[in-house]
UniProtKB/TrEMBL annotation:
Entry-linked Pfam families: ABC_tran (PF00005), TOBE (PF03459)
Domain Mop intervals: 293-359
GO cellular component, as recorded: membrane
Highest classification ranks of the organism: Bacteria, Pseudomonadati, Pseudomonadota, Alphaproteobacteria, Rhodospirillales
Keywords on record: ATP-binding, Cell inner membrane, Cell membrane, Membrane, Molybdenum, Nucleotide-binding, Translocase, Transport
GO MF term list: ABC-type transporter activity; ATP binding; ATP hydrolysis activity; molybdate ion transmembrane transporter activity
Name listed for the protein in its UniProt record: Molybdenum transport protein modC
Segments forming domain ABC transporter: 2-233
Amino acid sequence: MTLTVDVSHRQGDFTLEVRFESEGNLTALFGRSGSGKTTLVNIVAGLIRPVRGRVALGDLVLLDSERGIFVPPHRRRIGYVFQEGRLFPHLSVRQNLLYGRWFAPSGERREALDTVIDLLGIASLLERRPGSLSGGEKQRVAIGRALLASPRLLLMDEPLASLDEGRKGEILPYIERLRDQMRIPILYVSHAVGEVARLASTLVLLNEGRVAAAGPTADIMGRLDLFPMTGRAEAGAVLETRIEAHEADYGLTLLRSAAGMIRVPRIDMEAGTPVRVRIRARDVMLALERPSGISALNILEATVAELRPGKGPIVDIRLDCAGTPLLARVTRRSVETLGLRPGLALYAVVKSVAFERRSIAAGTEAGGEAGGEAADL
Ligand SMILES: Nc1ncnc2c1ncn2[C@@H]1O[C@H](COP(=O)(O)OP(=O)(O)OP(=O)(O)O)[C@@H](O)[C@H]1O
């Protein structure tokens, strides 16, 4: 279902001027603090009425200032998951979930309680009170409560921001299942690049209240000009791959991608499963000749597409690996020594151990039917 947003708004000194369309199952709004993400989400939810604009979900118009249409928030049937779960502390998990279902119009309670409990793995928590749950468990219950209201759209505003790394890793697979198995579009706010790279089918990059770029996640992540906005330190390319085979003796998995075969630590999923991997620019080495006698297992043929000097000694490089962008970060000295320039053919070298669990995830199919668990390395 297409989400169309075209709005203008002013609050204090801040101007929001945003326009995008997304057909992805999970659209991430990504940008620095103060770029306007929460304002935009609140406009979509109907909590803020913008000066001008249009918001539509498929054929359903939620806002159209020209035609005088403004569907009030409680009529939009939009689920909202906040940074902290906001569960009712005096109700059990089961009661919290049933409270969510109360908002679903009768006859449209399509998300059966058991399905949601199973999807989010919260069966063992049902009789507990929120006070005794971990942060990750609370968020899973909050997502469940939102789902049971049969929303047309799910808004998730930094749902993992209050969790530590371990808890984030615990909840990400559930969000992936939600994305792949439920037919509810998700608008997901984050300023964590790893999270967005893993989850988003479409990425909308906001900068100072405007759309700096919007499109498929891999395309946006592969653009050097956006590094200042996506964050230089964590920058990396996203590759869509499929499991080719497992090398049981070595505990490795072989992935097929347009850029070539890639070996990563074992992923417990069947051959053929789509898997998305993120290769950080700082984990990629370059060689003019095919290296031999080297421990790194991944050697990909590439052509230099673009060089962009960063601060100090660093140069960011976009490579073209059979049409797929890969990013590398080397020193200015290496650029000179190797004579790196656009058009030069070379080899990109990536260690298998550079692929940590958090940089690998079950990928999304175009139709959103992928399913599968996140890689369990
Ligand atoms: N009620 C308000 N009145 C005036 N200015 C506001 C109001 N609410 C937000 N702003 C300003 O609007 C801008 C965008 O804020 P917003 O919360 O949408 O950003 P954000 O991208 O969600 O940031 P963060 O990641 O920190 O949550 C900020 O400059 C903020 O100070």
